Structures are given as structure tokens and as C-alpha cells.
Amino acid sequence: MKLSDFLQTWDGHETENRFSRVIIIGLLVVCVITSLAAWRTERSIILVPPTLSHEVEVTRTSASSEFKESWGLFLAELLGNTTPANADFLKTAIEPLLAPDIYRSVLDAMTDQIKAIKMDRVAISFTPRHVDYEAETNKVFVSGELKSQGPNSKPDIKPRTYEFIIAIKNYRPRLEFIDVYPDAPRTVERLKALPPQPGELKP
After folding, report:
1. What helix, strand, coil percent values describe the chain, rounded to 5?
2. Alpha carbon of 6 to those of 15, 17, 18, 21: distances in Å?
3. Where are the membrane-spanning stretches (predicted)?
4. pTM summary value
């Protein structure tokens, strides 16, 4: 019997209905699996910040190195260009970015520095020279020259490095670590190359 003739019979209709049910159930399972996969997949956002010439990628809990370098440069320039007039603004600007673990210590340190800047009427400017991201430690290093000058003094120019750990929480940057020192970036490679200090074991 030909297939077309068989489908015209009652048994043919029953067979076709059963086959259709199997196909419908299979499609339903595929739709459910696809929906679950789409719901659990972390969404990526592609941005082109004004300070960069190319795209950077940000997800809910991570970001590309270019994104972190951009934020590190922004924070270094924000903290490194301070005058008595804008000192209070800098504290307000950085406060929302601080992680809870360093919130109080950073704000206390900034409060002390702001008092000293206002008392001595010192203007500080930072010129960045290099921005590096170290994947091993998730640190961003921004190094350059810091110039400070009081009202009746000559400019004092020193090397300066800003060291940050920038995490991503709900697509937003969060500053989890900050260190500032008059030295070259303390990367893992450089620390291994330095001679051990007295009483210190070389790793």
C-alpha cells in the first residue's frame, strides 16, 4: 500500500496523530531547554567609552582588561590632580566606588590628606605615562609623574604609581584595593626580581 493511501485510512490518521504528538513534545522540550539556557547565560554588554578607541566588554561580574585599564586611568587622574578647591569633590566622587572592606580606611586617609592640602594650600597634578593590567593579580598599575607645589615653593616632581584592583558587581566597577607609592609598578615579575630585604625570604 502506498503511503498516501495509508494516510487516508483510520489507522493512517492515528499513526500521523501519534507522530505529530511526538514532534510537538520534542519541540516543546527544545523550547524549554533554549529558554533555560538563555535565562542562565550571562549577558555581555559591549561599550565604547570616550577614553578608548575600541570596544570593551562588560558582564555582570567581569570585564575586559581594557575596561579596567580605562577605569584605573580615570581613578589615577582623579586622585592625582588635587587642589584645595576640588579636594572635597574628589572624596564625594570616589566614595560610591569603594568596596565595603576598604571603605572606611580609604575615606579616613583621604580626609587626612584633604586637611593637609587645604592647610598647606598645595596643588597636586599627575601626568600618567603607563597603564598596565596584570591578569595574575587582577591589578591595574598607572605610573607617571606627580608634581606638587605650594604657594611659595618650587615644584616638586616625583615618580608615582597608583595600584588598583577593580572588580565588577552588577555591571558596575568596584574598587577593592588601592595603593599609592613613589616607585615603579610593583608587579609580580618585578617583585620576584628584587633582592630580598633583611629578614625576608625570597619566594
Report:
1. 45, 30, 30
2. 10, 13, 15, 19
3. 20-39
4. 0.71
